[in-house]
C-alpha cells in the first residue's frame, strides 16, 4: 500500500504535535462528562479482579486516537486537493478509519461487555480484510538476518498476519492492568518503530506520542483509563506500523522478523505464560486474574518502582534489537532471559485467581 510522502520539516511536525496535545488535553479535561455521556465508565464493583476503588471514565483511547485520526484523515483529504495524485493521498486516511473502527469495537466491549470469543472473532475478521485490501502490511516471509534465512509464507500470509495482530492486541489488552503501563509501552514502541517507517508514518507516530504523553499524565493520576478502545486501537496502530516496517525489508531500512519479535516480546511472553497457566488449572484462558507480570512486580516492589522496572524489562531487548540489523536474535534472547528472570524473582508473589474458579497462592 503506497503512503503519502509528507515532509518532515519542522512546521508540519510541530503543528501535528501541538494539535494532538491540545485535542488530547481537551478530552482529558472533560473525561468524566464524555465517559458519562457515552456510558464508558469503569465500575470496580462490576469486576471481580479490579484493584481500583472508584468509578473511572474509560476515555483514554479517545484522548489518544481521536486526535491522531482527525489529523491523519485531514492530511489525506488535503493531499487529495493538492498536486499529488489522488490514488496516493487516500491510504493513510483509510488506515486511520480502520484503526478508529478497531477502537470502536473496543468501546463496544467497554460499554456492553462483549464475550471474548465474539470480540476476537470480529477483530480477526477485520484484520484479515484489512490485510487483504492492503497487502503492504502483510507478512510475506519470516526473516532472520543473523542466520541469513528467509522463509516465505505464500498463501498463509494473510491468516498468519491476522493471527499475529490478534495475538498482539490480546497481549496489550492483558497488560492493561495498572496505570501508565500500556501508555508507557506504546511510547517506547512508537519511538522505536519511527526509525524504520517512512516520513509520513513517522509523523503519525510522533502525533500519537504527543497524545500519549498528555493522556499518560491523567492516567497516572488515575483520572481516566485507556479502556479496551484504547488498548485495541493502539495495538492495531502499533502492530500495523511494525508490520509495514517489516514489509520494507531490513535491507531497505526496514525491520527483520526477529527484531519485531524482540520489540513486542515481553507482553507477548506474559500472555502465553498466563494462558498456559490458566489452562493447567482448568480455567478459561480468557478469565481474569492477578498473576500478570505487572501484578507480581507491584506486590514485589510497589507500582512506583514496578512501572519503570517493567518498562526497562521491555525496553532493554528493544535497544539491543534496534542497535543493528543483525541484533534481532540477541534482542529476542535478551527478552526471554529478562522475562524468565523476572518470573523467577517474583514467583513467591504469585497470586492466581480465576474468575471461573481457581487457585490462589502467594
Protein model, in words:
There is one protein chain. The chain starts with 9 loop residues before the first helix and ends in a 17-residue tail after the last helix. A hairpin with a 4-residue loop joins strand 3 (141-144) and strand 4 (149-152). The chain has 362 residues and is mainly alpha-helical. The chain is built from 14 helices and four strands. The chain has helices at 10-29, 31-38, 60-80, 91-112, 116-133, 157-175, 181-193, 199-220, 227-248, 257-263, 265-280, 293-301, 303-321, 328-345; strands at 41-42, 56-57, 141-144, 149-152. The protein has two domains: 10-255, no CATH class; 256-362, no CATH class. Helix content is 65%, strand content 3%. Helix 7 (181-193) runs parallel beside helix 13 and helix 13 runs antiparallel to helix 14 (328-345). It has a two-stranded antiparallel ribbon with strand order 1-2. A two-stranded antiparallel sheet has the order 3-4.
The count of domains is 2
Largest sheet: 2 strands, antiparallel
- Global structural class: mainly alpha
Indicate the mean pLDDT. Answer: 88
List SSEs in N-to-C order.
HHEEHHHEEHHHHHHHHH
Number of helices: 14
What is the global morphology? Answer: globular
Distance between the termini: 50 Å
Read across the widest sheet, the strand sequence of neighbours is: 1-2
Low-confidence stretches: 1-8, 84-89, 353-362
| Residues in helix, % | 55-70%
Strand content: under 5%
Radius of gyration equals 20 Å
